[in-house]
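Data availability (excerpt). The following record was deposited with the supplementary files.
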Amino acid sequence: MKGIWYNRRRLKFIILLLIGFSNAYAQHKSSPQIFFQDHFYLYPEIDSNMAIAHLSKKSYADLIDKMFEVDQKYRDSIMKYRSLWSNKNISEVPTNVRSYLSLEGINDKANQKLLLRLVTLYGWPNGGVDQNLSVAKKAWYIVWHAPKEVEIKFYKYLKDAVENNILEKREYDNLVHRKYEKSLSTL
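Predicted structure:
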C-alpha cells in the first residue's frame, strides 16, 4: 500500500509542477517584450501596468523622473550611429547598439502607456525642477517620442496643461505641427 500512495503523491507533484511551468510560460509570453536576434528577451524597465491609484504628488513626480531617465537612457548611444541607419548601413552598427534600439522602442511603449494612465488619473504633471527640466517638460519628451496614433491621445491633456500654465503653448504646437507636417510629407 505504501508504494501506491507514494506514486500518487509523486504524480500529483509532477502535475502541479507542470501546471506551474505552463502558467509561468503563459505569463512570460503575454508580457511586452522583444525577442532579440541573440535569443534574449528584452523587457521594459518600468512596468506600464503598475499600481498607480494612490500616488502622492511627490511619488507622481518621482515616477515621471524615472520614466524620463529610462526614456533617455539609450538615446545617446543610438544617436552616435544614427547616420549609419539613415544610410542603410545597419551591418556596420555594433550589435549592442542595435539592441539599444530595441530597448529604446520597448521602453518608449511602456512609458507612453504608463504616462497615459497617469495623466488620465491625475492630469498633466506639475512639479519641481530637476537639472533645469520640469517634470511637465519631462513628460512632454515622453510624448515627443510617441508615434502619431499614440501622441494624439495626449493632445487633450497637453492642451489643459497649456491652459493651466504648466506647459508653454509652443511645446503643444511643436508636437501638433511636427506630426501634421510629417503626415503631409508622406502624401
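Summary of structural features: DSSP finds nine helices and four strands in the chain.
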